């Protein structure tokens, strides 16, 4: 975390985006000795201790960030084993790789389930969503709960399935649409997921978010690449090339789709204005749309919520 003060608001379980915390570790500068927020249920220390997640503080995180801005993403090691030398820890860092590693299988659900929760009325910022009901099958590559809540608020009945769920089983459910969710890691390391996307696109409307967007890019025959340093945080300007509208978006990814590798018919709809990387796709013939960032605004601004409405319209036109 590059914000110097962490922990002063405490932790609230209503803000969690998954059924468990998948952090490998947390590095911060200053740990607040008290909490001051009416929604706080436990301290950061209590939260991490319950989940056996390592955290360290009194670290100059902004100096680390400046280093990363120059050298790109780097591998680090946290350890409580004092018997290990610095050289041994360095060797651990050198041997660990993220490229080519399947991280999806460690975060997906174990079995299909139905999702019913909408955005709580206290937090709902958009009214008068679709009165129609659409059945959406959502592939869980590490899906965020608020993506599911937003779709439900837009009138969707949702079946969530594991990352390795057969495309044939999904199509047998005759869904109105399929969502390919966000998730961690290298899309090139999960060829089974790419094959699933290939087997589904063109048959029903699909919506890809983050990892789902990258998998769609590969399924279309395109390539993805590891960025020098990815996009992380809630303040990234993205331009919708179709309208010229600029949204401030929340992003969290280390890989991107190479637009030059995409086939004819696949159109880049959004670009990240910080580096002009591909931030969205559509392919009218295949009935698909995708975004590289997180439109559900958790955390972040509500600018991109219209993306869910676009998916609804895609399913509605396909139903006619």
From TrEMBL:
Alphabetical list of Gene3D superfamilies matching this protein: 3.40.50.880, Carbamoyl-phosphate synthase small subunit, N-terminal domain (3.50.30.20)
Catalytically driven reaction(s): L-glutamine + H2O = L-glutamate + NH4(+)
The enzyme's E.C. designation: 6.3.5.5
Pfam hit, one: GATase
GO molecular function: ATP binding; carbamoyl-phosphate synthase (glutamine-hydrolyzing) activity
TM annotation in the entry: none
Keywords assigned by UniProt, alphabetized: Amino-acid biosynthesis, Arginine biosynthesis, ATP-binding, Ligase, Nucleotide-binding
Carbamoyl-phosphate synthase small subunit N-terminal domain sequence ranges: 1-79
Functional pathway: Amino-acid biosynthesis; L-arginine biosynthesis; carbamoyl phosphate from bicarbonate: step 1/1
GO process terms (BP): 'de novo' pyrimidine nucleobase biosynthetic process; glutamine metabolic process; L-arginine biosynthetic process
Subunit structure: Heterodimer composed of 2 chains; the small (or glutamine) chain promotes the hydrolysis of glutamine to ammonia, which is used by the large (or ammonia) chain to synthesize carbamoyl phosphate.
Family of the protein in this entry: Belongs to the CarA family.
Identification of the protein by name: carbamoyl-phosphate synthase (glutamine-hydrolyzing)
Organism whose genome encodes this protein: Zea mays (Maize)
Gene: LOC100273931
């Amino acid at each position: 975390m590059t914000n110097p003060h962490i922990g002063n608001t405490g932790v609230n379980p209503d803000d969690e985006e998954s059924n468990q915390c998948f952090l490998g570790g947390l590095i911060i500068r200053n740990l607040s000795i008290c909490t001051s927020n009416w929604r706080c249920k436990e301290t950061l220390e209590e939260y991490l201790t319950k989940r056996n997640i390592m955290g360290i503080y009194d670290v100059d995180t902004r100096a680390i960030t400046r280093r990363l801005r120059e050298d790109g993403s780097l591998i680090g090691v946290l350890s409580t084993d004092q018997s290990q030398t610095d050289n041994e820890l360095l060797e651990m860092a050198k041997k660990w790789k993220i490229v080519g590693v399947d991280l999806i299988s460690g975060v997906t659900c174990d079995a299909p389930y139905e999702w019913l929760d909408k955005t709580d009325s206290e937090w709902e910022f958009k009214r008068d969503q679709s009165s129609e009901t659409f059945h959406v099958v959502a592939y869980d590559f590490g899906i965020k709960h608020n993506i599911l809540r937003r779709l439900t608020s837009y009138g969707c009945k949702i079946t969530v399935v594991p990352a390795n769920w057969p495309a044939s089983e999904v199509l047998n459910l005759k869904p109105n649409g399929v969502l390919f969710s966000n998730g961690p890691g290298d899309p090139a390391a999960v060829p089974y997921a790419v094959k699933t996307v290939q087997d589904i696109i063109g048959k029903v409307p699909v919506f890809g978010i983050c990892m789902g967007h990258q998998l769609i890019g590969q399924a279309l025959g395109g390539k993805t690449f590891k960025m020098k340093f990815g996009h992380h945080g809630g303040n990234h300007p993205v331009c919708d090339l179709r309208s010229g509208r600029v949204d401030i978006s929340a992003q969290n990814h280390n890989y991107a789709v190479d637009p030059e590798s995409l086939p004819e018919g696949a159109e880049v709809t959004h670009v990240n204005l910080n580096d002009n990387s591909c931030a969205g796709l559509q392919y009218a013939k295949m009935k698909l749309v995708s975004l590289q960032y997180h439109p559900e605004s958790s955390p972040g601004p509500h600018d991109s919520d219209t993306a869910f409405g676009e998916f609804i319209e895609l399913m509605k036109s396909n139903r006619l």
